Amino acid sequence: MAESGAIEALLELLRCHLCEETAARLLEVLLNNVKIRETKATKSAIVPLSQYLLDPQTQGQQARLLATLALGDLFQNEALARSSDAVSACRALVNLLEDQPTEEMKVVAICALQNLVMYSRSNKRAVAEAGGVQVVLDLIGSSDPETSVQASMFIKLLFSNNTIQEYASSETVRAITAAIEKDLWATGTVNEEYLKALNALFGNFPRLRATEPATLSIPHLVTSLKTGSEATQEAALDALFLLRQAWSACPAEVSRAQSIAAADAIPLLQYLIQSGPPRFQEKAEFLLQCLPGTLVVIIKRGNNMRQSVGNPSVFCKLTLGNTPPRQTKVVSTGPNPEFDESFSWSFESPPKGQKLHISCKNKSKMGKSSFGKVTIQIDRVVMLGAVAGEYTLLPESKSGPSRNLEIEFQWSNNLTQNAN
């Protein structure tokens, strides 16, 4: 049929608005064939189909749908998508989306546009200049879930490079963020395609990372880390990673606001380091090393704090960096004092390389005045979330079992916790 001129004849029927639905159906069947799409005759179908969609006399919804499908079929062929005639199809498809089509028509048109912008910078420019960016952003927020996801995939392709960088705005980020929030409310999770669209914007247009909508997206990214599939978690982690990369160049108030919002991810990042896929580890560690948090040190009990006569009156003094020393209450109940006392320090970023110095002292007038000291490196708790153990006091006892302290360390996002 194709070799006998069927494509040209069917296009003529459409142009004349004769037997439109039947002609469009046959045309779509022909153009859905890979071998037929590779023939020279198919290139000449692009402009007539585009004109048919733009023609005010084209009224039949089914014929319009089939003609749109036929265009989508054509642009599965990369050479056809790159052809100069494809620009006319871009304009026709954007016009179709502006005309309040059915949800099915929206999906078909968006998928056709995806094929067009995937291969051609000139097609991206044609879509943008026809008003396609705003049209598709509106669809993301107002359409059925399937249409919205397809629209976000289109945004990802449209902004995969800087061809139309002047159209990448904070409003684009806002529209994607709103779709993420809507998806979370509706399903409790997020389709990763929304996050991938956001990553295309953050990755290719660093200026968008410092915008208010970018900051407002962070709580949703954190929730996506918690509730999403592995693909969603990875996309959310990538987005947080991209935002973090811009903090050194952002205004101080922006980087602080973003870091505080991202700190809610600390327990999730710690979990991913220990139990998530290996490929997550590097980015999770990178984020943890720069998020504000709170270090909590719990002095649980001391062991073997003996003196020759009577019970000791034991207390511990804690010093971290240049902060004022803290100390526990005095416990006089015996050689194994129970403290169960916690101390907290808040940090703008993790205390890398810092050490906690603890000295264990005796207020009793009898016996020695000190039971020893211990110095503890605290970096590890940032990655693990919690570390506990028995820490031997030095110098060690020469006449009995070693004296030690049972201590637990925690690193969390609890930035409002009051320090003891």
Can you tell me about this structure?
Keywords: Cell membrane, Cell shape, Cell wall biogenesis/degradation, Cytoplasm, Cytoskeleton, Developmental protein, Membrane, Repeat. InterPro entries: ARM-like, ARM-type_fold, Armadillo, C2_dom, C2_domain_sf, CSI1/2/3. This protein is α+β, with helices and mostly antiparallel strands and 420 residues long. It folds into three domains: 1-167, Leucine-rich Repeat Variant; 202-291, no CATH class; 294-412, C2 domain (Immunoglobulin-like, Sandwich). Helices cover 51% and strands 15% of the residues. The protein is built from 19 helices and eight strands. The chain has a four-stranded antiparallel β-sheet with strand order 4-1-8-7. A four-stranded antiparallel β-sheet has the order 3-2-5-6, with no helix packed on it. A hairpin with a 7-residue loop joins strand 5 and strand 6 (370-377). Helix 2 packs parallel to helix 5 and helix 8 packs across helix 9 (121-129). It is rod-shaped and about 110 Å long.
Q: Give unreliable regions as ranges.
A: none
Shape: rod-shaped
Q: Which superfamily, in CATH terms, is the homologous superfamily of the largest domain?
A: Leucine-rich Repeat Variant
The CATH topology of the largest domain turns out to be Leucine-rich Repeat Variant
**How many β-strands, per DSSP?**
8
N-to-C SSE string, H for helix and E for strand: HHHHHHHHHHHHHHHHHHEEEEEEHEE
Radius of gyration: 32 Å
As laid out across the biggest beta sheet, the strand order is 4-1-8-7
Which strand-content bin applies to the residues? 5-15%
Structural class call reads alpha+beta
Can you tell me the CATH architecture of the largest domain? Alpha Horseshoe
Distance between the termini: 85 Å
**Largest sheet geometry:** 4 strands, antiparallel
Instruction: Report mean pLDDT, rounded to a whole number.
Output: 93
